[in-house]
Design a protein that fits this description.
This protein is an alpha/beta fold and about 260 residues long. It contains 8 helices and 15 strands.
């Protein structure tokens, strides 16, 4: 029996995966999550054998969530995506599998057959190596996609501006809009935070609270509050603070940037 967790921000996609899993006698769903923050906490508390993970989500991306998993208790991962530019090249050279939305029962069964073989044969080190390889290729695919769509449109005052995504330091939810900070300038776009994150997916975005995404490439200083939250100073002088629920995500991101001693 394999314990399964499903992580996807689309209810219909979770339902499809849940129904597919329910038809398999050796799968037991132990968790289903629409946001990666809650999912990460649950996975750490009870690592599953198999994780169905959407690549594009509203909090951490699926890529960031996968990087945050404990390599000592790494589940088998099947990435789920609606964007084939993420899929073919990255996954065909790796043991990590994927499902391209929309998928049918036959495609799910083929994926599950590979999962079962891997579950029996792979070591933790094998899984970690395969995951590292595919994440690197996914990130390259995201950068390639961004090169083909190099601008975002936003408003300031009564004028529309074409913004370079690499210059956007901060994205904040503001009712039916998002605020984009570029240096000391503020722009607005009618969008959800999730939609803005997808449009800016080429950047090193990290959600530090429910309503705030930071382009970590623009972080210049980091300090801590007395309660342990992170204070980030951005290139243009803006200062933002992480919330308690996203403290671990920020810490883990920053840990990966440290230079390890020889």
């Amino acid at each position: 029996m394999m314990d399964v967790i499903i992580v996807d921000d689309e209810p219909a996609a979770r339902r499809t995966l849940r129904e597919c899993c329910a038809r398999e006698a050796d799968l037991r769903i132990v968790g289903e999550y629409g946001d990666s923050g809650s999912a990460l906490e649950a996975i750490r508390g009870r690592p599953p054998d198999l994780l169905f993970l959407d690549i594009q989500m509203d909090l951490l991306s699926g890529i960031a969530l996968a990087r945050a998993l404990d390599p000592r208790a790494l589940p088998l991962i099947v990435f789920v995506t609606a964007y084939d530019h993420y899929a073919l090249e990255a996954f065909e050279v790796s043991a990590v599998d994927y499902l391209l939305k929309p998928f049918d029962d036959e495609r799910f069964r083929r994926t599950l057959e590979r999962v079962r073989r891997r579950h029996a044969a792979e070591s933790g080190a094998d899984r970690q190596a395969a995951l590292s390889s595919v994440l690197e290729q996914l990130e390259r695919s995201a950068r390639t996609l961004a090169d083909a769509r190099p601008r975002v449109l936003a408003e300031s005052g009564s004028r529309m501006h074409m913004l370079d995504p690499a210059q956007v330091e901060l994205v904040e939810a503001d009712r039916n809009y998002v605020k984009l900070t570029v240096g000391r300038d503020i722009f607005h776009a009618r969008s959800t935070l999730q939609q803005a994150e997808k449009s800016l997916q080429s950047q090193a975005l990290l959600r530090i609270s429910r309503s705030c995404l930071v382009n970590m490439s623009h972080v210049r200083e980091v300090s801590r509050t007395p309660r342990g939250d992170f204070i980030l100073v951005l290139s243009g002088g803006t200062i933002v603070t992480s919330s308690e629920g996203f403290r671990d995500a920020v810490r883990q991101y920053l840990e990966r940037l440290k230079i390890s001693p020889a």
